[in-house]
Amino acid sequence: MPAPVDHDTRRREVAEAVWRVLAETGFAGLSLRAVATEMGATTGLLTHYFRSKRELVEHALEVVHERTAPRMQDVGPPAPGLEGLRARLRAVLVDDAEATVLSKVWVGFWDLALADAELGLAEAARYERWRDRLRPLVDEALAAGELPLGRDRETVVDLLTAFTHGLVVQALFDPDRFPAERQYAVLDELLGALASR
């Protein structure tokens, strides 16, 4: 009689293997076979958990969210206004090895999301949730006079979102030009420009 299988433990093992594959190859290299090889298992074992590559991709996204969440939580309760924005935006920059891997995985996912309407909608919703996290901080900065009255909140939120994610891509492609200190300095320049009257 075969030994009983602890499915929670097995799913954690699968999640860790999925993460290792993503970290090494991105979503482009994610497959049932690649994860099975990483686990030293058969693809048959994985088909007990995932009936298709799409289910595997959905699970991989859950794994990425789990890996990303601590970076956002480490920021803690945001300081008000511009200081809160600075802390929140720094949390998405490529400033250590873990952030580099997370960012590479997310950028790799964009290719799938652009080619798949359902995944694209999910990614658009993720960006909307990100903007929801920035809006109260922008409102506080406007109310405190840290941003000039008359600045449009949605334009500021869109600028910050586009800028920081563009900076992430630049840091991935040219890490020597954009080490963490340079990313922070460029972000501070943007916040200073937005604050100027």
What does this molecule look like?
The structure is a single chain. This protein has 197 residues and is mostly helical. The chain has two domains: 1-69, Tetracycline Repressor, domain 2 (Orthogonal Bundle); 75-197, Tetracycline Repressor, domain 2 (Orthogonal Bundle), CATH 1.10.357.10. 74% of the residues lie in helices and 0% in strands. It contains nine helices and no strands. It has helices at residues 7-25, 32-39, 43-46, 53-74, 81-90, 97-115, 117-143, 153-173, 180-195. Helix 5 (81-90) packs antiparallel against helix 7 (117-143). It is elongated, with a radius of gyration of 20 Å. The N and C termini lie far apart (76 Å). The mean pLDDT is 88.
Keywords, separated by commas or semicolons:
197 residues, mainly alpha, Tetracycline Repressor, domain 2, 2 domains
